[in-house]
Amino acid sequence: QPQPHASAAGEVSATATPSAYVPDVQTVHRLLLQRAGLTPPVQEDASPAELLEGEMPTEPLGSTPPGEPAAQTAIPLFPSAETEPLETAHLPFAHLLDELQILGQVQNTFIVASTREGLVIIDQHVAHERVLYEQFCRERGGTPVPRQTLLSPEPLILDRRSALLLQERLDELHRLGFELEPFGQDTYLVRSVPVALVGCDPIGVLKDIIDELVELSVSRRVPLAREQIWITTACKLAVKAGDPLSLPEMQRLIEDLARTQNPYLCPHGRPITLTLRWNELERRFKRS
Asked: Is 56 within a domain?
C-alpha cells in the first residue's frame, strides 16, 4: 500500500498512481491496419506502447482449450503476393479501386463501396473464393501457398472411400497447404494447414473438402481434374456469408480482387460484383 507523506506545506497526500496508457484514435487505427496486414511505417515519435503492440504474437493454431469451439477470425486472407504499395496503373481492373471508398458491410455478407464509376456491391464469399482460386493457380507457377504448422498433429479419421481418394490426391492437397501423413488404416495425421484456416476448425474444413470431392467423383464417374480440387478447396477456405469484416479487411479483399484475372465471376460462375452507375442512379431519382 502507498504510504502517505507530508508535503512541503505540511499537508498529507497519498502517493500518486501512474495513469494507464490510453491510445488515441490514430494509434487504434494504426493497430487495426497492422492486424489486417496493412502495417503503416513506424513513426519516429511513436510511444513505447505503440511499438510493443506491433510485436504482440498472434494465437497459434491448436491453442483452443479442449471442449471449446474454435474462435472464428474475421477474414482469414492469405498474405498477398504484393507487399509493395498498391500501384493501380498496371492492373487490368484498376477501376475497381478508382476513388474507392468503403461504405460498410450489409448483412455481414455484402461489401458496399463507392468508386468513380458508381455504387459497387460485392459478395464477400465469392470474391474471396476468386482470390484464393487464383492464388492456387499461381502455385502452379511456383508461388507456394502459405501454411501454418499445428501445435500438435491432429488425426483425420475417414471412411474407406474418402481415404482412398485422399491417398490419390495427397500431393495435390500438399501443394494447396495441407501437410498430411498416413497414420494407420483410413487415418491421417494433419501437421500443417493453409494460413487461411487460422482460427477455424482445420479438421472439419478438410473433411468438408474431401466429402465434396468424393461426391463429385461419384456423380461424374470420372477422375477429378486438378482445377476442380482448386475450386472446391477455395470455396471451403473462403470467408463465409455472415462473417463480420473490419474496414481494413474489406479494403484488402477488394484490392486483392482487383489483382485477379476475372473479378466479376467466381470459379463456379456466380457473379461477384454489381455496379449501379452514378448516371443510372441519377436517372432513377429523376435528377438527369
From this structure: no
Q: Half-sphere exposure (CA, 13 Å, Cβ side) for 261?
A: 7
Do the beta carbons of residue 250 and residue 108 sit within 8 Å?
no
Task: From 3, 29, 28, 26, select the one nearest 16 (Cα to Cα).
Answer: 3
- Please give the chain's pLDDT, 288 residues, in tens: 555 444 444 444 444 444 455 566 566 566 655 655 554 544 444 444 444 344 333 444 444 444 444 444 444 454 444 444 555 555 656 777 888 899 999 999 999 999 999 999 999 999 999 999 988 887 665 566 788 888 889 999 999 888 888 888 888 888 888 899 888 888 999 998 888 777 778 888 889 888 888 888 877 665 667 788 888 888 988 999 999 999 999 999 999 998 888 899 998 889 999 999 999 999 999 987
5 falls within a domain: no
In a domain, 190, yes or no: yes
> What is the number of residues in the chain?
288
Is 118 domain-assigned? yes
- How many domains, in total, are found in the chain? 1
Q: Answer for the pair 38, 248: CB distance below 8 angstroms, yes or no.
A: yes
- Tell me the residue range of the domain where 273 lies: 94-277
Return the CATH number at 161: 3.30.1540.20
What's the pTM? 0.63
CA distances from 129 to 25, 117, 137, 236, 288 (A): 33, 24, 12, 8, 38
How would you write 151-164 as a 3-class SS string? EEEEEEECCHHHHH
| Of 76, 173, 82, 86, the residue nearest 125 (C-alpha) | 76
